[in-house]
Specification:
Blueprint (H helix, E strand, L loop, with lengths): L66 H16 L10 E9 L5 E9 L13 E5 H14 L20 H20 L7 H8 L4 H7 L15 H6 L4 H6 L1 H50 L8 H57 L4 H18 L7 H40 L2 H33 L7
Antiparallel strand pairs: 1-2, 2-3
Pfam family, one: Snx8_BAR_dom
Membrane topology: Peripheral membrane protein
GO biological process, one term: retrograde transport, endosome to Golgi
Length: 471
């Protein structure tokens, strides 16, 4: 059974604990918790399978694998999936902001997307560029959510709300967020092959105009799709335990990583203030140097010039130190902080998938099974009774077969969801290397500039050994 689901953003809000079940947009009643598709006791006997719908023979020895063989086969399958995704690969797309004014009052921002490298298995080739609006990105994400509700769909930055024009800080953050979104999508081994994704990156006209005349499919990825028997054979039920125990750790990780991001940003601002402080220190020191000529006339001492020269060297040192701090600040903004932000977006995107799963990964197999048994009992009781209408018997039989077909379809869908969830969780495992890359960048950045700062201080210390003092 497929429900509708409205995916709220919660882009950077680590305090947003609203469960999708409480969303005003979620207007459908939810199935009972005990109807989750991954219950082992939902396996039905062969009487509920319809020939041609589910090609399965549970009694066949050929389909049975030992646990060791299952694990080995699953590892091969999962390794192939992991190798298809590299979350730390260079960006394939460049996004820049373009102003476009409409009339005297209203204006909107356009974004130019340039393809930097060919995207395999698509028409998106290097050098092509298109112009898109924020609303186009929103349309793309909504389409991806409809077609791939059990995939990790990256979050979008929030839309501007209010009558006042958005600030430059907001617009810069939104541009960076859109760039992260589109590059995360084209890295995904499944989403990047989506035909509408290729359209988004290559159709030269406005998406809003293209949508008015184009016919495109938004049915989910399971439409007319049957799960492969190979996956059933290699599947180990305990594999879902890790997924089912994920929410608590995931939610805590989002909070902790957001705090780390906040501390990094506070450190960056502290370095910015220190750079300004050094320049202020230098300016006051220069003014003081001027006053020393009156305080210590050369009539009484010939060391004043020596001291003033070294005070000037301290001023030069402070200028260099301030330059280094400004460069470090710029590298933190352009290289380090984006890595922290990208990872928290990744975590929150997985969190949204988990929330969609809790709502959509349900079925009505239990109720259908009871109805099938009840109708079978009715048909059995009707046999041999001359007063029973043939129309009534045929009606119950039709309902019985319809329910059996629904059961078969829902079992097939539950297997497809199970397979997709495992694929996404396996893909997500690659994002642990984003942690490695982030802290390698963090360490290298600090080592680089602390080393340069140390060199400057050591050089100054050596120079000041020649500063005039009492013999």
């Amino acid at each position: 059974m497929r429900n509708s689901y409205s995916d709220d953003e919660g882009y950077y809000d680590t305090n947003n604990r609203n469960h999708p079940e409480e969303s005003e947009n979620n207007y459908l009643s939810l199935p009972k918790k005990n109807e989750n598709i991954f219950r082992e006791d939902d396996k039905l006997s062969n009487q509920f399978y319809i020939d041609g719908l589910v090609n399965r023979n549970e009694d066949s020895d050929d389909d049975e694998l030992t646990l060791d063989n299952r694990v080995e086969s699953f590892e091969k399958w999962s390794t192939k999936i992991r190798n298809s995704y590299n979350p730390i690969s260079p960006d394939l797309l460049d996004l820049e902001e373009i102003n476009e004014k409409e009339g005297l009052i209203f204006k909107h921002l356009n974004y130019k997307i340039t393809i930097l490298n060919d995207i395999p298995n698509t028409n998106a080739t290097a050098g092509k560029s298109v112009i898109r609006r924020y609303s186009d990105f929103l349309w793309l994400r909504n389409v991806l959510l409809k077609k791939y509700p059990f995939r990790i769909i990256p979050l979008l930055p929030p839309k501007h709300v209010g009558l006042q024009s958005p600030s430059k800080i907001f617009l810069d953050a939104r541009r960076d967020g859109l760039s992260k979104f589109i590059n995360m999508v084209v890295r995904h081994p499944v989403l990047k092959k989506e035909e509408l994704m290729s359209t988004f990156l290559t159709v030269p006209i406005e998406i809003s105009s293209w949508r008015k005349t184009a016919l495109y499919d938004t049915s989910d990825e399971y439409h007319d799709k049957k799960v492969k028997e190979e996956f059933k054979r290699i599947f180990v039920p305990s594999l879902m335990d890790e997924w089912n125990s994920l929410p608590k750790s995931l939610n805590k990780s989002i909070i902790l990583w957001s705090k780390l991001l906040n501390l990094v940003e506070r450190h960056r601002y502290k370095e910015y203030l220190i750079a300004k402080h050094n320049l202020l220190f230098k300016n006051n020191l220069n003014e003081f140097t001027i006053q020393t000529n009156a305080l210590y006339p050369t009539t009484f001492s010939n060391t004043t010039h020596n001291i003033n020269d070294h005070l000037n060297e301290i001023g030069k040192h402070l200028s260099k130190s301030s330059e280094l701090q400004e460069k470090e600040n710029l590298e933190m903004v352009n290289r380090l902080i984006p890595k922290f932000i990208t990872y928290v977006i990744t975590l929150k995107s997985l969190q949204k998938l988990r929330q969609r799963y809790d709502i959509l990964a349900t079925n009505s197999i239990g109720n259908l099974r009871k109805r099938v048994l009840l109708n079978e009992e009715k048909l059995e009781s009707m046999k041999g009774k001359p007063d029973v209408s043939g129309v009534e018997y045929d009606t119950i039989l039709i309902r019985l077969n319809q329910d059996k077909k629904l059961i078969a379809d829902q079992i097939n869908r539950s297997w497809l969801i199970k397979k997709t969830i495992l694929e996404e969780f396996i893909i997500f495992q690659q994002t642990q290397f984003m942690i490695t890359e982030t802290f390698q960048e963090w360490t290298n950045l600090h080592a680089k500039y602390h080393g340069l700062e140390l060199n400057e201080w050591e050089a100054l210390a050596v120079d000041l050994t020649r500063m005039a003092t009492i013999e």
